[in-house]
Amino acid sequence: MFASRTLFALSTLVVSAFGATYTQTDSHQGSGFLKSFTHQAIADPTHGRVNYVDQTTALAQNLTFSSGDHFVIRADDTTVLSASGPGRNSVRLQSNKQYTTHVTVWNIRHMPQGCATWPALWEVGADWPNQGEIDVLEGVNDQSPNQSTLHTSSGCSMPASRSQTGTSGSNNCDVAATNNAGCGVTANKANSYGPGFNNAGGGWYAMERTTSFIKVWFWSRTDGSVPSDVLNGATSINTDNWGTPYAFFPSQSCDLNSHFGEHNIIINLTLCGDWAGAVFNQDGCSGNCVGKHSRRAPPTWAHPLIATRLCIPDFVNNNPSAFTNAFFDIQWLKIYG
């Protein structure tokens, strides 16, 4: 009896440590996103030149719409803005549900592209940065490849060497120590972001979060090695069959359980702002997209008054047609637990 109980206990430990099978808990497609996500009509925390609108406004202005298995959110691309008025109308969605241990699989046809664009798919806790942030898809000004990043409070770092195909930047996830940059990993595929992503017809992003690690994968639409459960949005998945992730964040030097709380899923598109504005000209874009604040290592200002005078992002104000391709087209989002 003792031996059988011991074997049972050991087998339970093995399953909990290595089991990677999950069952689908949520499936969002088309108009279903409107029932599961809320439009956040809030001031942009990253100081972008956007005006996040509520659902009624977004639907009326066709900034959010669905047709069959297409769910689209986009920025306004027709209005010339007044320098003294609010920013360009855009959309920020937040999931109504919160998640801890889970897997998300995104099937995306198109992501926002163009100078000044800063699109993101990410997850965040209510008490930032103490409950953490996970950026699954994020970038600016069409600069490939994609970057996946953790943002935390102090005491969370990543080992310099770990099992991933992407390239690590800073390994310190503490926002206070990294000027809010966190610990990012860039994907190893050029078509993981921007025009390259869109020209290939999009692809799939997947993120697995446990108390032991966080992993992110990407497969292009043209990739012949997409796992069948990812490809088909299966009701049951096994992440052990997905190969080496491009981003791997282990708990080796970071207690993920204490640094990451319950998360909402966010889909948003901002313009200019702390990151895209700070590197706008450096990324080959013409015009002015500079903001006063910076999340991602901006230029060092000679004098604060200069920063204030350069704060008006004329590119966003005067070039609505530059945002014709600034939209997400999401085929579906599947969530597993």
Could you describe the largest sheet, including whether it forms a barrel?
Answer: 9 strands, antiparallel
**How many structural domains?**
1
Structural class assignment: alpha+beta
Average pLDDT, rounded to a whole number, is 90
Q: Into which percent range does the helicity of residues fall? A: 10-25%
Please tally the helical runs, counting DSSP H or I stretches of 4 or more residues: 9
Q: How many beta-strand segments? A: 19
| Envelope shape | globular
Beta-strand percent range: 25-35%
CATH class: Mainly Beta
| Order of helical and strand elements | HEHEEHEEEEEEEEEEHEEHEEHEHHHE
Radius of gyration: 20 Å
Q: Note poorly predicted spans.
A: 1-18, 292-310
Summarize the structure.
The protein is an alpha+beta fold. The chain contains nine helices and 19 strands. The N terminus is likely disordered.
Tell me about this structure:
The structure is a single chain. The chain has 337 residues and is an alpha+beta fold. The chain has a single domain (20-268, 323-336), classed as Jelly Rolls. The chain is 17% helix and 31% strand. The protein is built from 9 helices and 19 strands. It has helices at residues 2-18, 32-36, 55-60, 194-199, 228-231, 256-259, 273-276, 304-309, 314-318; strands spanning 21-28, 37-39, 50-52, 64-67, 70-74, 88-90, 92-95, 102-110, 117-124, 133-138, 147-151, 167-168, 183-186, 203-209, 213-220, 236-238, 247-250, 264-271, 327-336. The strands form 3 sheets. Strands 1, 4, 5, 8, 14, 15, 16, 17 and 19 form a 9-stranded antiparallel beta sheet that branches. The protein has an 8-stranded antiparallel beta sheet with strand order 2-7-18-9-10-11-13-12. The model is unreliable at 1-18 and 292-310 (pLDDT under 50).
